[in-house]
Sequence to fold (388 residues):
Amino acid sequence: MNPRIGMLLVTVALLAGCASTNIQPVTSGAYEQLPEEKRINRICEEEQQRLADSEMLYDNAKLTRYVNTVAMKVLPEAAKREVDIRIIVINNPYCNAFAYPNAKVYVHTGILARMENEAQLATLLGHEMAHVTHRHTLRQRLNMRNKAAGLASFKATLGSVPLVGELSSALGELGTMASVSGYSRELETEADNVGFEWMADAGYDPREAPKLFAHLMAEMEAEKREEPFFFGSHPKLADRQANYQTCIAARGDVTGGVINRKGYEKAVAPAIYETARLDLKAGRYAKAVNGIQRYLKIYPRSGRAHYLLGEVHRQRNDGNDLKKAIDFFNRATKLDRKHAETYRSMGIVYMSAKDNKAARRAFQSYLKLAPPDAMDREFIQEYIRQLK
Ligand SMILES: [Zn+2]
Fold:
């Protein structure tokens, strides 16, 4: 255990007897940061710096601007005056989002790629921002009965998940707790309720809130639940749906409201592409295909999406996959003549099919288009020599 965290837990344990029940949201009027919160926030900043240095963030200004704009539509003015919320995108294909108590909310490209519309994004961001404004990290820590067990269990969860394990070493223990273990059932339900009211008040269609969870759960069922994070730590889906139905009923008239599927898909298209690319890299072919097909609905004439589809077939190499790969690569070169990697992949497929002439031609096109310092230039030149 990080010694600072250990100290923090001791401090928190001493406080637990007296102060645990009366932590008010930042909007309550008399908000003042407690010394423990300041300490927690300093650790957060260190972890976030590590994360920023780790190259795990998704560097796309347009997409970052979009998710922050939606967050600002959802967050009430009174809360904006107290906390400086910032949404940051992490390049990771797993379906997750989490909030640090110092108002930084991290959203994976993987969850952006799998939500359906802006109203669902508003629901997700509302939930995460409510963890911040309602000071859930502090409340969770003050209420935790058995802190050692809490830490042990999240470490055990991490061990079995390589990608998130790697991410967690950059996150540190606070971030890992926020991203993997989540909060108590009571706090999660509060975040659902608060987030729901915010997204509905902002003019989004409230009926999309329960759909977000139903939709993501269905996606995960299809994936055999290999990503338990955002949901694993949360109240059971059935309870959650029932809770949303109560919220919707309490609101009365909920017909209409903003959904914005088209604008959402356009804005998150780069995350959809990137997630498909990472799914392919991890050998999750079916998921990669789903992602590319969704991207192609947004940009039907994308050369590099056709290239990626060809790559799925080339790498899977099952049945007549190589023939299909060539078809997609041909289509890709028609749509985008300048995409070097397409020609390299074509060359590799032709080479394995012993069509030396076509392979040589494809590799030569690759060398013409690839940047002068491309790492594989010499390899490809060697291939061309061998093919003669
Ligand atoms: Zn949560």
Notes: Strands lie at 86-90, 97-99, 104-108.
